[in-house]
Amino acid sequence: MTTLYRCPLCSQPLKLREQGFQCDNNHLFDKAKEGYINLLPVQFKKSKEPGDNLDMVQARRAFLASGHYAFLQQSLSKIVSETDHGTVLDMGCGEGFYTQSLKFRTNQVYGIDISKAAVRYAAKRYKDCHFAVASCKQSPFEQASFDCIISVFAPFFGDEVYRLLNDGGTTIIVSPGPEHLIELKQMIYQDVKKHTLMTCPLQFKLLKQEVISKKVTLNAAEAKSLVLMTPFAWKFRPEHLAMLDSAATLPVTLEFALTVLKKPRAA
Length: 267
Ligand SMILES: C[S@@+](CC[C@H](N)C(=O)[O-])C[C@H]1O[C@@H](n2cnc3c(N)ncnc32)[C@H](O)[C@@H]1O
Ligand SMILES: [Zn+2]
Known about the structure:
267 residues; alpha/beta; Rossmann fold; 2 domains; eight-stranded mixed beta sheet; 7 helices; binds S-adenosylmethionine; binds zinc ion
C-alpha cells in the first residue's frame, strides 16, 4: 500500500509492507508498537532528544485533560470541518490533542512532531490518525499532499507548508492572542509585553484572523502544569512556584489567535 509518506533519505514514496514502511531503494522504517513511525534519521537530529521532553509532554497532557483548552479545540475543528479536509496534517502535533479532533468520518489525518515522547503518546491514544516523528522544516511527505494543514503553538515554516498544500488548500495557524496568560506573566515580568498578531506570509492569501478568549479559574496543580508547558517556564523561580501553590485559585486569561491562510490556485 502506498502512503503519503516519502523516504527521508532518498525522497522516494514509502510503501507499507509487512516489516514496516519501505522505499524502492530498500530504506526501511519500522512501525513502533504504539503505531507511529520514526522518519527522523539520527543524522538529521540536532540533539539527542529534539523537541519537547517527557516532562513538558506530561505537563501538557495533564493540563489539556482539565478541559480548559476545549474551546480552542472546538473552534479549530469547526474551521477545518468547513474547508476541504480530505487530507489533513497537524505540524508539531504534540500528544495529538488537536489532531484527533480533525478526524471526521472518511478523511485521513496525519500528525508529525520532532519529539518522540509526544508522538509516542499520540499514537498510543489516537489509533485512527497517522503519527510520525519528523521535522516540520523538512517533512517526509510528497508535495501537494494535503488539503489542510494546522500548526498550533508550533514552529511555522511557510515554504514547507506551501510545498505540502494542494492548490487552494488552507492552513490554520494558532498563536497566542495579545493577552494570553497575562496574569502569569505579571508574576514574573515588570513590563509585560502583549503578543502581536502574525502577518500573512507573501505566498499565501489571508482568509481571516480571529481572536478567541476566555477567563478561567485554575487550581494550583493546573496552574503549575500550564506554566511547565509554556516557553517562559524557565523564568519561574521557586518563589513564583510557591506563589502558585499558596493561591487556592488563580484567574487566568486564555486567548488565541486563529489565522486562516489559503494557498492560491495556480493561474
Ligand atoms: C508548544 S508545543 C505544541 C504541541 C501541540 N500542537 C499542542 O498545542 O498541544 C510545540 C511542539 O512543536 C514541536 N516542535 C518543535 N520544533 C519542531 C520541528 N522543527 N519539527 C516538528 N516539531 C517541532 C515540539 O516538540 C512540541 O511538541
Ligand atoms: Zn529511501
